[in-house]
Design a protein that fits this description.
alpha+beta; seven-stranded mixed beta sheet; six-stranded mixed beta sheet; about 30% helix; globular
Length: about 950
């Protein structure tokens, strides 16, 4: 019977949509299972075949869990704010909302063609005001919270105000920007404005001067992961370090909890390691050093206070505020020039560049508090303002970077940890030795020396032992248009939150999407974007009088804001009263399975854990962590095609002849190849781009053969394969099976369209099991044991594979089972009915059609998954190979129920054994039960 995949797939996609087959109920007594894909950003390019890999895997698992009787939440939505739509708006004037809507429609159409079992009724978009109303609400909650280190959680700011009213800062143990000290009386005597200023020091969402990655060409601040080699990832524009007043999120308050929480999660170890490194916990001491001729001090954090006697110079981050104060007139020009150069590098670039040594001398000296020696103070880009205190005590004998710096600037290197190595030539960084040249620390090992020196530091009143974290607070404002407006207005320069009743604060219309002529963010172009405090509404900016009508915040939220809580909104997507009802958050709990790329390790995955912990602290949800099990899918790589252009000409030489010429290797679109071969369609190539119109070709055997190479699939490499084309030719079920068949989910693997024919052939074979010629023909006769064995072997394998995410081996098992059933001409209902259920998570369209033909009125989706019966796998007979002195002589079929002794007796008495025995007793008989018999004579 002809397998018409196009007709079948259209029919069932229509059925699922009309019947809302995958709509999830919140009112059920079924156990829940929450399967989620990482939030897709709807780009203008649409999907290529690499994108659905993770979605197919999660869809198989979601369908499997439905078959197991779970109430499955498997939603979809769009992370729809983003820089690409805004850049397009700047170039064309088209509103980002229009671009985003067009992109989403294209994405949605493609996703539906692949047959995903998403609950489309729960779709959310971060750029919808009904969604970002609650992102703004969470921001307001963060603003009105502080972190109490005594209770180890976030609390309402009101409890902090109460503490100040009763005790001032006495006994306060809070996460803060600066350590403040005041009495209850001083707090009460402060003006309202001063009180607000003090509270900003503690709020979880706060405004402060921060060093940021500023991209003038894009007119915005970029996150570290949006910058590569000093340039913006989008557009390749220069990026500079700049100090700006910015909103930040106090994620640093959660560093220890984020670290400890990793122990409870079933995540890939490399991903956990990345977060652990990013959080960067280290234990050591905070120490103050006097600066000669200045009242200021240099405060450092060091993990090796035991080496303090070996400190011979100090290094400050170029952006450290002290630099301005302590730089001498003679050194000012050199220092200013160095600061300018450093501003062109991102912090990530500075951390990665371990080879190049650079710096500038400030002209000032610090005093070692233990040796009393003067130490020159330098600045260098290897010290970061955001880590520790933005200053280091340099111990060149025992730190590789300090050593390189000392050699470059000819500074003193003093050994203080015993070693036979020449520390003048190479640093000795190990801790497994004892202190030397260190006065009262001499002879002590690392742990004892560290403990003793911390006690002495505390006795001298110049510091204390402490734990430090590399993770810094997350910058939360972007100077761009297409993002969530921050619900803040300014009165006397101080920020105040809008009332919740005024949410959402909607994005205003603007004439242009670039910053204003005064350098304000694009929202500064809005004509109606001011806050009328008396009437509690947004009004014209012309009315701002700073008495009752005030300016609103002009920055927008970063790209990660909306994606930090979307998993919660899916539980209750249309609620107007709350971001999620508590009882629904309790029912759905954690995401049980989260699938997405490893590139989000230190961005989205940290921020959503942070917001989740905060919302739990404030009593809105109950679970500590958002994502219990996480899988990073590998990439599907493209098979790029190349032509060879002879230098200085418009002549192109075929692959095997290219070695005879000086050539340039150029990417060519894979759609220009003939069929699935490597041969270039030369006429199509000439028509592809104007500069190729006059191309000439040097052929081999009358053909132009391209070179091929496996690379990341991307538009720029012209190796993108559109899933729509694959669905058209091989069907969505073919695409789904092939992507799983390519290899283990977590690994990267190359795409090869030629491989689809094998999977498509399997689908046709599977389809024809149910037909006799063109007639659908199923027998109600009881299957044989052999037929049951094929079925139950498959059940056992597929259950194991799905539960261990080994989807590729399941597809192989399907092929084996269908081949075996075809050989024995099985058309029994009791075999083919469960077979359709087993294969349906992978190939839902064909299985729905077969299920319907089998006489069922309901979808196959909720049919109970077939249960394994091990009895069908027990062998009735075993064929034993019999070896004599290591050589196989004959085979004997015996009952599987026989014991090893019974097998031994039957083999020895078998007539075929007699010529080898010649009446002798064997020296040794080895029976490997159910496997082999070996006899030594």
């Amino acid at each position: 019977m002809f397998y018409d995949h196009q007709q079948i797939e259209k029919k069932w996609q229509k059925y699922w949509e009309e019947n809302q087959t995958y709509k999830t109920s919140n009112n059920t007594d079924k156990p829940k299972f929450y399967v989620l894909d990482m939030f897709p950003y709807p780009s203008g390019a649409g999907l290529h075949v690499g994108h659905p890999l993770g979605y197919i895997a999660s869809d198989i698992y979601a369908r499997y869990k439905r078959h197991q009787g779970f109430n499955v939440l498997h939603p979809v939505g769009y992370d729809s704010f983003g820089l690409p739509a805004e850049q397009y708006a700047i170039q064309t004037g088209q509103h980002p909302a229009i671009t985003t809507e067009e992109n989403i429609n294209k994405y949605e159409e493609q996703l539906k063609k692949i047959g995903f079992s998403f609950d489309w009724s729960r779709e959310v978009r971060t750029s919808d005001a009904s969604y970002y109303k609650w992102t703004q609400w969470i921001f307001i909650e963060l603003y009105h919270s502080w972190y109490n280190k005594n209770t180890d959680k976030a609390e309402p700011i009101q409890t902090l105000i109460q503490h100040f009213e009763e005790k001032g800062t006495e006994g306060l143990n809070a996460n803060q920007n600066d350590e403040l000290n005041f009495t209850a009386e001083e707090w009460k005597d402060s003006s309202d404005l001063d009180k607000e200023d003090i509270l900003l020091n503690y709020r979880l969402a706060y405004r402060a001067e921060t060093t940021v990655n500023w991209c003038p060409a894009l007119g915005t601040v970029l996150a570290n992961d949006e910058v590569k080699d000093g340039k913006s990832e989008r557009g390749g524009f220069p990026v500079f370090q700049k100090k700006m007043m910015q909103w930040s999120m106090r994620i640093s308050a959660y560093s220890e909890r984020l670290l400890q929480g990793l122990n409870t999660l079933d995540w890939p170890q490399p991903l956990k390691d990345a977060q652990e490194y990013w959080i960067g916990k280290s234990q050591g001491a905070q120490v103050k050093f006097q600066i000669e001729g200045h009242d200021e001090i240099v405060e450092v954090f060091t993990t090796r206070p035991d080496t303090i006697f070996g400190t011979t110079f100090m290094v400050l981050a170029p952006e450290n505020p002290l630099v301005d104060t302590i730089t001498t007139e003679a050194q000012k020009a050199e220092v200013d020039s160095y600061i300018e150069e450093t501003s062109k590098k991102t912090e990530r670039d500075r951390m990665a560049d371990v080879k190049n040594v650079s710096g500038a001398f400030t002209g000032s000296y610090a005093v070692n508090p233990f040796s009393g020696e003067k130490m020159p103070i330098y600045i260098s880009d290897y010290v970061l303002m955001g880590y520790g205190t933005g200053a280091v005590m340099a111990v060149p004998a025992h730190d590789e970077r300090d050593h390189r710096f000392a050699k470059k600037f000819n500074l003193t290197i003093k050994k203080v940890v015993d070693t036979d190595e020449d520390v003048q030539e190479k640093s000795f960084d190990a801790k497994d030795s004892v202190c030397v040249n260190s006065d009262f620390l001499n002879g002590l090992n690392y742990n004892d020396a560290k403990s003793k020196i911390i006690t002495e530091i505390e006795n001298k009143g110049i510091g204390h032992g402490t734990t430090n974290y590399r993770q810094r607070d997350a910058i939360f404002s972007r100077q761009r248009y297409w993002g969530e407006p921050v619900p803040i207005y300014y009165k006397e320069g101080m920020p105040y939150t809008l009332p919740v009743s005024a949410l959402p604060l909607e994005l205003p219309e603007v004439e242009k999407y670039l910053p204003t002529e005064d350098g304000d963010p694009p929202l500064g172009n809005a004509k109606v974007f001011a806050w009328d405090e008396a009437n509690q509404k947004v009004v014209s900016t012309d009315l701002i009088d700073d008495k009752t009508i005030f300016p609103l915040e002009l920055s927008t939220m970063p790209g990660w804001a909306g994606s930090s809580w979307y998993f919660l909104r899916y539980m209750d997507p249309n609620d107007q009263e709350v971001f999620v009802k508590k009882e629904l958050a309790d029912y759905w709990g954690q995401v049980d399975l989260y699938i997405g790329g490893s590139e989000h390790a230190t961005g989205h995955l940290l921020y959503s854990r942070f917001w989740n912990m905060f919302l739990k602290d404030r009593g809105y949800i109950n679970q500590d962590e958002p994502f219990q099990k996480l899988i990073n899918q590998g990439m599907i790589l493209g098979m790029s095609a190349f032509v060879y252009r002879i230098d200085g000409t418009n002549q192109y030489v075929s692959k095997s002849l290219a070695g005879n010429y000086q050539t340039q290797k150029i990417h060519v679109d894979v759609s220009l190849l003939k069929g699935t071969s490597d041969e270039l369609d030369t006429e199509a190539f000439k028509a592809w781009r104007p500069d190729y119109t006059d191309a000439e070709f040097i052929l081999e055997d009358g053909k132009y053969i391209t070179d091929r190479e496996v690379e990341k699939m991307s538009k720029s490499k012209y190796n993108v394969v559109n899933p729509d084309d694959i669905c058209e030719e091989y069907g969505a079920d073919g695409l789904r099976l092939y992507e799983m068949f390519l290899g283990p989910l977590e690994q990267s693997k190359p795409w090869n369209t030629q491989g689809l024919s094998g999977v498509y052939g399997f689908l046709k074979k599977f389809w024809n099991l149910y037909f006799n010629g063109d007639t659908f023909e199923i027998s109600d006769e009881e299957p044989t044991k052999a037929e049951y064995k094929v079925l139950h072997t498959l059940i056992k394998k597929v259950v194991y594979d799905i539960e261990n995410f080994s989807f590729n081996t399941s597809v192989s098992s399907f092929m084996i089972a269908v081949n075996e059933l075809q050989k024995i001409k099985c058309n029994k209902r009791n075999i083919l009915e469960p077979l359709a259920v087993i294969i349906s998570p992978y190939a839902p369209h064909i299985c729905e059609e077969l299920w319907s033909l089998l006489g069922h009125k309901e979808s196959v989706e909720f049919e109970k998954f077939p249960v394994l019966n091990e009895e069908y796998l027990v062998e009735d007979e075993i064929e034993y190979p019999v070896s004599v002195n290591g050589k196989m002589k004959f085979k004997i079929s015996l009952s599987a129920q026989l014991s090893a002794k019974e097998v031994e007796d039957l083999v020895i008495s078998d007539e075929r054994m007699q010529p080898f025995l010649e009446g002798k007793t064997p020296k040794k008989i080895i029976v490997v039960h159910h496997r082999i018999v070996n006899i030594v004579i």
